[in-house]
Specification:
Layout: H1 14-22, E1 30-34, H2 39-49, E2 52-57, H3 60-69, E3 76-80, E4 93-99, H4 107-117, E5 118-131, H5 138-146, E6 152-153, H6 157-162, E7 166-173, H7 177-194, H8 198-220, E8 227-236
Parallel strand pairs: 1-2, 1-4, 2-3, 4-5, 5-6
Antiparallel strand pairs: 5-8, 7-8
Helix pairs in contact: 7-8
């Protein structure tokens, strides 16, 4: 796989591949992708399904960066919105996709908003950062706190979503991708930053510093025993 095609998110290219395999042949006219660094995901969805894709990010630097990356992609649009309070109409999207972007302290509000804007029978594909143990050490809690994460215990994920009227189609454990994600992301982000002007470079430097901290904890301190990633594909129930 060429570096230029590598999705620099936890799960790498595996989550969008999981989505495409499970929804092959489906019609997805309007798609929402939630989260920064999701441009390659959006492009793969456009290429596979011919969709119109909106990406939403929550900060101005991500917005500017994303607009630059998708500047030659007419079927992709990026907007800055809070994930739990968008300006989209009710029942608008055929698919909402989130790759390691909504396992946050405000997850409940985000999921409520996803339900509002997703069509009945529409698809929701989420990559959830999940705890692999109910009792995690202090340094893992520090990682969660620094990134505003509130991971669920991996065995509770299906129950969480079925209680909110989503029906499970498929799930896949992508925890094995996290080691590769941390190993390759720093190098890739450094290469990107080195090609940019100073303003955009400073944005990537902040991303790199955050990933370096998380990478050290994951690869050297044993956080891999406690932090996982689960991809889930669901459909919104009609009632």
């Amino acid at each position: 796989m060429e570096k230029s095609e590598l999705i620099l998110l936890p799960g790498l290219n595996r989550q969008v591949r999981f989505l495409i395999q499970k929804l092959n042949g489906k019609s997805l006219l309007n798609v929402l992708v939630i989260g920064s660094f999701s441009e390659l995901v959006a492009n793969k969805i456009v290429n596979k399904f011919g969709s119109n894709v909106d990406i939403i990010v929550e900060d101005y630097e991500s917005l500017i960066n994303s607009k630059y990356i998708i500047r030659n992609s007419p079927n992709i649009n990026v907007k800055m919105m809070s994930y739990d309070s968008t300006d989209y109409p009710d029942v608008h999207f055929d698919l909402v996709y989130a790759q390691a972007s909504i396992s946050l302290t405000k997850r409940n509000k985000i999921i409520k908003e996803v339900k509002r804007i997703l069509k009945p029978g529409g698809f929701f594909c989420v990559g959830e950062i999940a705890s692999l143990d109910k009792n995690v050490p202090r340094f893992v809690h520090d990682i969660y706190d620094n990134s505003d994460l509130l991971p669920l215990f991996y065995e509770d994920l299906e129950k969480y979503y079925t209680e909110r009227k989503f029906s499970l189609i498929a799930k896949e454990n992508l925890s094995s991708t996290l080691k590769d994600y941390f190993s390759v992301s720093i190098e890739n982000y450094n290469n990107i930053a080195d090609t940019l002007e100073s303003g955009k470079k400073s944005y990537y430097k902040k991303v790199i510093n955050k990933i370096k901290h998380e990478s050290n904890a994951y690869l050297k301190l044993g956080a891999d025993k406690y932090i996982g990633l689960i991809a889930i594909l669901m459909t919104k129930e009609s009632n």
